[in-house]
Each structure stands twice: as C-alpha cells, then as structure tokens.
Write a structure and sequence with these properties.
mainly alpha
C-alpha cells in the first residue's frame, strides 16, 4: 500500500485530481448500472427511505472524518514552512526528513477511501424518479469526494508531491550565509 501511495504522491496535482475524479465517476456509473440492471423498480421504491437514511449517516461520518484529516494534513503542511526558513541547516534538514517521512497512516487512508466508496455507492443506490438528475447529483458528489481524496494525498508529504513547501528560504537564507563565510 505504501508503494501505491508513494506513486500517487509523485504525480502532478492536476493528474492526481483527474485520476481520482475519473475512477470515482467510473465507480458511480458502474453502481448506477448495477442498480438499474439488477434491482427492479418496486424494490428500489420500497428501499428508498432506508437507503436515504444510510446515505445521511455515511455522509455525516465521512464529512467528520475527512474534515479532521484535511485540517490535520494542512496543519502539518503549514508547520513545515517555518522549519525551512527559521532553523539552522542541520536542524532544518532533520526536521525536513521527519516531516517528509511522517505520513498519514495507511489504515486511515484505507478507511477514508472505503468511506468514500461507501458514500458514492449508497448515494447511487437511492431511488429517484428523475434518473438523469440523480446521476448528475451523484456525479457531483463523486467529484467532491474524489477531490477530497486527492487533496489528502497531495498534502500528505509537505516536501514532495504536487503541493509542497518550497526550499527557497533555506537555500537563500541559512545555506547562502553558510557558503559566504
């Protein structure tokens, strides 16, 4: 799993976003196709209220979980910048190494990915009379969920990946002073 996340981390941010959106939309379309093909209209009508309740519960848990993770990842990203510009070269290098290697635990990423999948699948299973509108809404939900996942991966390592802290303050400040003496 770590190798896969490292591979994702090396992708440009736009490519990462596009991959997550494409995979998410493919899952949403597959779910819609399975529901349309294998569940009769009357079954979908009878289970609609129960599915709506499940969507609400899954969406609430997902929203809380993803909010905490994104805020924590963003805080780690923000905390990395002062390490570069305020500390000595050796200490900054050590702090950089620590920040670059501290990752979101794989288990937490898997949990977020599974919650994302569950949210899209359950939302896709809702019964509506307006199938096109429903698919458009599920597609939009899928894009938001995919962008959340891509954001988590993008800011997980503050010194690598598509969104990273610049090393310019270290090069221009501490290291340039050290080489001029």
């Amino acid at each position: 799993m770590t190798g896969f996340l490292d591979w994702l981390d090396d992708l440009p941010t736009l490519v990462l976003f596009l991959i997550f959106v494409a995979v998410g939309l493919a899952v949403a379309l597959l779910c819609a196709w399975v529901v349309d093909r294998h569940f009769q209209e009357d079954v979908r009508s009878r289970t609609g209220p129960a599915v709506a309740t499940v969507v609400g519960a899954v969406a609430t848990i997902y929203a809380i979980l993803i909010a905490f993770v994104i805020v924590n990842e963003w805080q780690s990203y923000q905390d990395a910048q002062p390490h570069v510009s305020q500390e000595s070269a050796a200490l900054a290098r050590r702090s950089r190494l620590n920040a670059a290697t501290s990752r979101l635990p794989n288990e937490l990423f898997v949990l977020i990915a599974l919650m994302s999948l569950a949210l899209v699948v359950v939302a896709g299973a809702l019964d509506t009379r307006h199938r096109l509108s429903h698919r458009v809404l599920v597609g939009r939900l899928t894009i938001v969920v995919a962008l959340n996942l891509a954001l988590v991966v993008s800011i997980d390592r503050p010194f690598s990946g598509g969104i990273k802290v610049s090393g310019a303050p270290l090069r221009e400040g501490v290291l340039s002073r050290a080489t001029h003496h």
